[in-house]
Design brief:
The chain is of the alpha/beta class. The chain contains 38 helices and 31 strands. The strands form 6 sheets. It has an 8-stranded mixed beta sheet. Strands 24-25-26-27-28-29-30-31 form an 8-stranded parallel beta barrel, surrounded by 6 helices. Strands 1-2-5-3-4 form a 5-stranded antiparallel beta sheet. The two termini are 49 Å apart. Keywords: ATP-binding, Kinase, Magnesium, Metal-binding, Nucleotide-binding, Pyruvate, Transferase.
Amino acid sequence: MTGRRTSTDAFDLGMFLAVRAANRVIEESGHVSEINDQKFVYDFTEGNRDLKDLLGGKGANLAEMTNLGLPVPPGFTITTEACKVYLESGSEPVALRDEVSAHLDALEQQMGKKLGQADDPLLVSVRSGAKFSMPGMMDTVLNIGLSDESVAGLARQADNERFAWDSYRRLIQMFGKTVLGVEGELFEEALDEAKAAKKVASDTDLDAADLKKVVKHFKKIVKAQTGRDFPQDAREQMDLAIEAVFNSWNTDRAKLYRRQERIPGDLGTAVNVCSMVFGNLGPDSGTGVAFTRDPASGHAGVYGDYLQNAQGEDVVAGIRNTVPLADLESIDKKSYDQLMHIMETLETHYKDLCDIEFTIERGQLWMLQTRVGKRTAGAAFRIATQLVDQGLIDEAEALQRVTGAQLAQLMFPKFDENAKVEQIGRGIAASPGAAVGKAVFDSYTAVKWSRSGEKVILIRRETNPDDLDGMIAAEGILTSRGGKTSHAAVVARGMGKTCVCGAEELEVDTKRRRMTTADGQVVEEGDVVSIDGSTGKVYLGEVPVVPSPVVEYFEGRMHAGADDADELVAAVHRVMAYADRVRRLRVRANADNAEDALRARRFGAQGIGLCRTEHMFLGERRQYVERLILADTDVEREESLKALLPLQKQDFIELFEAMDGLPVTVRLLDPPLHEFLPDITELSVRVALAESRKEPHENDLRLLQAVHRLHEQNPMLGLRGVRLGLVIPGLFTMQVRAIAEAAAHRIDAKGDPRVEIMIPLVGTVQELEIVREEAEQVIAEVRAQTGIELKLALGTMIELPRAAVTAGQIAEAAEFFSFGTNDLTQTVWGFSRDDVEASFFTAYLEKGIFGVSPFETIDKDGVGALVRSAVQAGRATRPDIKLGVCGEHGGDPESVHFFHEVGLDYVSCSPFRIPVARLEAGRAAAEAKGSDSR
């Protein structure tokens, strides 16, 4: 194989110049066909990293490395546009075959050999490459061009018969599974049989004669499973592989991964055809994956895996345990030094952590891929601040390098280091976190148990793309093979899942559904295990957890220092400080009592956007509201209100004190009526039993009659909100009085209450006008009684489609709007959230009707359109109207960006999500500023 090289000291300049000349060869051939001036194939010399939409991430970055003069094997990329045409029409574009032929001709001239020729065959790989990284989700085929005839020529040229037959068996195995649809386990079992027959543990221990037998066996498997012989024509192999890569875009695992990562389904994948370089030529060859920084921690250093005498798929699949990348220095010092220089070049060029795939062929280093690497949440924050300190990026860019979802991961609990534990193993800390669950040994069981409410840990020897649904369902993943660059590690980091890989002392037996420790202890399926993705430790049983240091920081119990946890906190602090400086959206909390309000304030809340007063009437107080609703006379009603007033007043005094100097939006009572009434079934049974026993039951009977009278088929659309306030005289005025008197009390105590009273479920301006008039009268009475000037804003929730559509009219009587996007989503979609999420949402997500639940991320096209139009109409009527949102969407990262875009003044969310909303509000502002500057 060295015949085409002139030097192994560095990248062959002659080779590079030949690559650069590829376009001239193609242009001179005159064979390139185009439809409507559309070009479907690009040489690596033609593209750059900005063409990811067209060339996919892998193709764009191969082109970028080629342009940088790095040692990239020559090749070409078939565009995502070609894939789209294929998927839409079921066949390749007419022009594609001619374009591929022209580029293949040019490649053959560059390499001085023909694809699949008998004496010295050119071999190529066919690899997928979507715009966004989808590790392991789509297909790759290596060694295309080998056949019964050309394998002998490869053996002669390489002077290595074993290598040639090993490459051939790999082609049949990958092609059979990927292109022809043969069950992969059939090949694995045949290979295991060959190793067992020779009594060896590794496939590297099989010699050429053994591998010839394996190839023969593999070919029989192909014929038996497909009814056809393994194709011997090299061009047929390549064309079928290209189609297989196109088709892999729509495999179940690829679609599942895209839904999980919210990657659009209409992007398509590019296909990269690259001349083969071989890491399986012997001990002076190998393959590896490298990171310019540790993707788990973000620390600088030498991170990655290397495997001698192997091809790239061996590393990612985790089927053979690798050695640390640092060991390459002693194995091949020259290649190691060259790799370190290239890694530095790439990180400086991309200004980010780079994930690199490389192969060494007899001492010659080749770069097969680079991309901005996936990283853990902690690493994301550390790397962002490190790059700022190095002067590679500014603070605005650092803010764009982290996400609210990553910050939320950092706020999850971790294992208590002081707890009594039983450690049963240790592997590689691949993706941090503390995960506890029942051991399961296949994806089907993981999904099944998870849907039944069980927390599970998926345990495998190594994972593969078919395990994706189980990985999503599991709390964490544990493998006995593989390293930080294995499939399990890469996918887990991308999903934010806890993962421990390469726990070699643990013997995983998936068939018997058990795991055996080094000392012979057996962990059966269903036994509880705990895994620590930050240390790699594996424990038997449930290990207790403690708060995250990031949560302790937000609560003021931890400060930046020297150790690792404090270093992370320092990075979070720096990014959050910048986000707070640049964000326009203010962030408030949904809080119903002083304790929640104080915690929210520690988390950075700038007020309360939603105080749900119905939550103040739970427990013992429920009886007062029940009496009020069921009261038959004015006297009974007045007695109930009189009892409620002091309780409400004290609640508000405590709340206003906790949020002194910050706005507090108090929503008047808005329960579905049934929440404050006895259960009709329980009450009916009680009355029936009392009657059968001839016991006194007059009160229960009276109560049952009232409940029957007030019973609603759909309480969420019934007597609640403003309707309840209008139907039950004195209810809202009692609450307004309690609010006003509490505000007066705080002012008298030198406090600074900033109170906003919100009327819920308004559908027409007339409802709001009536309640507003009554509220203003009560406020005036309290002002007169106390002599204290009160400035209480009056506004409403926009949570019904009609309110959104008539927002311009409603703004005439409202000083502020707060969008209740939970109810607005229910009423726009016609969904009852409590029912539909459990009944058909899973099917809707699986079928792609939803990319994500509309209750999780706002539906921009439907619900969002109403919010946008209501904002415009409200401001047209009242330019100074204050606008916010208080549904759960207020803490959702993607939704926060939408609320910034439409011009809201604030978002409100649960206390725990406040830091996430602060960060995303900053990111939205920085992103908008960047877009404006461009």
